[in-house]
Amino acid sequence: MAVQPDRIDYKIMRHLQDDGRISAKALSELVNLSARATLTRIRDLEEAKYIRGYRAELNRATLGPHVAVFAEIVLKDQRQTAAAQFERHASACSHVVACYLVSGRYDYLVRFGCRDLEHYTELSNAWLDDGALGIEKIVTNTELKTIKEFRGFPMMKL
After folding, report:
1. CA pair distance 61, 64, nearest whole angstrom
2. How many CB atoms lie within 10 A of CB 148?
3. What SS3 class is residue 70?
4. Rounded to whole angstroms, how far apart are CA atoms 93 and 123?
5. Would you give the DSSP letter of residue 60?
6. Selection from 46, 9, 54, 5 nearest residue 31 by Cα
7. Hey, which of 48, 84, 138, 155 would disulfide with 14, CB 3.0 to 4.6 Å?
8. Model confidence over 100-143: pLDDT tens digits?
């Protein structure tokens, strides 16, 4: 595949973000290509790592009680080794839904998915008590209502 995807590739990616289970035939009709040409482009986009995978979007409301918490985390030490240690721990934690290194008042914004606030409190206290993580402070923001969930990146090239 060429280094830069073209307009049709961006259309394919946009439609796959909207519906990862769309058939090649239906997708080919949306982008005005044959099913074979569409499949070839999809494979090329996958090989070039523009498409990393496909997932099911779960309905959190049906999964039972849960709470989403956003934690603003400040590290005591700004050296790369300290950051790497924290990032490894966050990446390995099954309750971390997303973790971002950010600029501003804190170092990381971490979204947790927990059974309840007590569960989150136990988890955050364990992180604070783990001296190897080097956490100075955690400021917690509890999700009250989801207005818009992440549904994919905008395809700027379309």
Report:
1. 7
2. 5
3. strand
4. 10
5. G
6. 9
7. 155
8. 999 999 999 999 999 999 999 999 999 999 988 999 999 999 99
Question: Which residue is associated with the tokens 């059974």?
Answer: 115
Q: What is the pLDDT of residues 2-58, one digit of tens each?
A: 568 999 999 999 999 999 999 999 999 999 999 999 999 999 999 999 999 998 888
Integer Cα distance of 38 and 84 in angstroms: 40
Query: In angstroms, rounded to a whole number, what is the distance separating the alpha carbons of residues 45 and 12?
Result: 9
Task: Provide φ and ψ at 45, rounded to 5°.
Answer: -65, -35
Please state, in angstroms and rounded to a whole number, the distance separating the CA atoms of residues 121 and 140.
10
Of the candidates 100, 89, 4, which has an alpha carbon nearest to the alpha carbon of residue 44? 4
pLDDT of residue 63: 85
Sheet of strand 67-75: strand arrangement: 96-101, 108-114, 67-75, 135-142
Q: How far apart are CA 132 and CA 86, in angstroms?
A: 8
pTM recorded for the entire structure: 0.81
**Residue ranges of domains in the chain, CATH in brackets:** 7-47 (1.10.10), 60-142 (3.30.70.920)
Q: Tokens in use for 38? A: 């569409």
